[in-house]
Every structure is written in structure tokens, then in C-alpha cells.
Amino acid sequence: MTELVPYAAKELVAERLQLIFPEGTPNRNYCIRDLAASTVFTMLYISAVEGSGRFLGPAHVYRMTDAQAGMKDDRDRLGYADGLLKKGFSVPGMRWYADNTREPIRDETLREGLVAIGAVRRRDDLPTTSSLPRYALNAEFAALFDPDIEVEALPDAIDRYRKRNLSRSALARIRIMQAGAAAGTAGILVTFPSGETRRLAPGPSSVISRAVIEDFAARFLENPAVLWLSESGNKVVARDDRLARDIGLDIEASRTLPDLILVDLGPSEPLIVFVEVVATDGAVTPRRQQALFDLTDHAGFPRGQVAFLTAYQDRESAGFRKTASLLAWGTFAWFVSEPERVVILRGASSRSVRLHELLHP
């Protein structure tokens, strides 16, 4: 008999899932809720771990009982793993879930949750119609639930697992959320292109604003400067009236102004970039775009010298899902978790454009 992996009580599994997948983890709810804890516990119980040759199916989870979970002998564990696949197999005690939980286990907890972030491996050698079990825990992930692991060693083990197994965007999103939480009442310090620093109120919007100023501007503007920076409630954090006057832009405070105004002084004619920061709401919609165009039209700026950017935490954030369909054509979207990329919502052209022309402009 192949040695089975150690397994812990479901309560310990639930606690560690919260630690392994903090705020910012993609589809976090699918990875930490009770159904996820039950699924991971059951995979450990039957030793469905990569390399073991054993796999889990949703039935293993919804037919589990407290009585079965308390049977710790290896023969009992393997008996449940194999016996459940046989007709007429009886499990003592009351089931954890009803049969109709199959779909949430398969589609949400596994496919959209644990499989998507690499915590669970899925067999690819089975037809989609096969009823055979197909899921096994990532071995590094399974090791994090060893009940004998020292509490002091757990944070380092979790950190190593994340770095080796989570995607860059997932890690970035976690860092974003943790940075916002760590700021506390002290706020978030932002360094402007000029070297000047300002402190913003703590929160996700400030984290995104800092990333726009420190990262986006450096990547996508030749010689960036900050003309205007405000927080929620129209609190003005920074404004540069002298530079604004020099380029002919009136930035008097009004409801029209966005969260951020950047200017690129590198081109022969300056480029004005209006930025809306979206933690939950407030994208560059067609109405906002037109209101800002009215401002630059009044100042005499050609529209070719005006750009609009909506900045988000990442593509899985609630703010992006809520506002993506509202974004105006002819604007840009940028994600803190994928800083080297920018989305262009290309507007209408005076002529038909073929797809190959967009791929190779």
C-alpha cells in the first residue's frame, strides 16, 4: 500500500485556506468558503495528491460524513476513496451535502477556484463525459496542510508556495490589497515624477493612484508631470497651476475634473492625460469623456493632444467587471497587476480596417 499523505481536520484546513489565499486572490470566495475547505479536506483524506495516482470526484466531497472523516486508518481512507466508485457502497452518518452540490464543487470550487490558481491539478487524459475522478492536489499546496508543520514555519512555506505557483497578476493583486491594508492610518506615500512626495489617504483608490503616477507614467509617457491629483470628496492633494497655465489649461476645481491629470512634456506638443481611478466606480464613460473634451476644447487643445485612461487594480476586480461595458471608445484602460500592458478601446475610423492591420500597424 502506498503511504498516504497526512491530513488535518476540516477546521484546520479552513483556517489555512484563509492564510494561503488572502484578500486579492482571484475568485477568493471559491477558494476559502466551506465548500472549498470540504473539498481540500476530502482530497487530503483520500490522498488525492499529484504523483499518488489517486484522484477525487465531486461525489467524494458531497457524500463525505463526519463519521467517515473520523475514521483515520489508512484502510478506511482508501476504502472510501475506492469504494465510493462502486455501486451500493454505504457511508456511515449524514452526508455533508446533497447530490445537487456536484455542480458548485466542479464548476466553482474546482474549475474557477482551485484549478484556476494551480492549487489543484486536473487530468487531461479523460474524455469530458467520463465519470472517473480527475482532480488531485498540487503537492506543494497539499504540504501546507500537514498538521505537524510548525506554526512559525508556516508563513515562509506559504510565501514559497505562492511565488512558485500563483500567476504574476494574482501575486500583484495580493500585493496591491496588502499594500492598501498595510498603509493604515498613516496613508500611502506617492513619489511624483519631479521627486516631490505627497501622502494619500489609505485605501484601494490611493494604491491605484500611486501606481499610475509611479509606474504607468514612467512606462507610457516620455517626460511625465502631474497637473492635478484629488481624492474622493474632491479633496485636492496636488495641483500645478503654473505648469497648467504654461500649456494653456485651466484646472480650476470643478465636478468635471477627474482623479488625476497627467501631462507628457516629451512630444513637441504636450499630451494631456485625464485619468479616472476605479476601485468600485467612476470610469471614463462617453459622458465623462465629452465633459473633459469640453474643457480642453475651451482651452484650445486639439483633441489629438488629449488622452483618457481608466485605471483598475486588475481585470478580475469588482470595479472592472462593473464598469467595463461603460468605457468610452477612444480611451485606454490600465491594470496595476499587469503594468507593462495597456488596453486600447479603438474608436471608429474613417475607413474600414482589417484585423491584420491592427495586429501589425
What can you tell me about this protein's structure?
By secondary structure, the chain is α+β, with helices and mostly antiparallel strands. The chain has 2 domains: 10-166, Orthogonal Bundle (Arc Repressor Mutant, subunit A), CATH 1.10.10.1820; 183-359, Trna Endonuclease, Chain: A, domain 1 (3-Layer(aba) Sandwich). Helix content is 39%, strand content 15%. The protein has 15 helices and 11 strands. The chain has helices spanning 10-20, 28-32, 34-45, 58-62, 66-69, 74-83, 102-114, 139-143, 154-165, 168-183, 204-220, 241-247, 286-299, 318-323, 355-359, and strands at 120-122, 135-137, 188-191, 197-200, 224-231, 235-239, 260-264, 271-277, 306-312, 331-335, 343-345. A 7-stranded mixed sheet has the order 6-5-7-8-9-10-11, with helices on both faces. A two-stranded antiparallel sheet has the order 1-2. Strands 3-4 form a two-stranded antiparallel sheet. The longest helix has 17 residues, at 204-220. It starts with 9 loop residues before the first helix and ends with a helix. The mean pLDDT is 88.
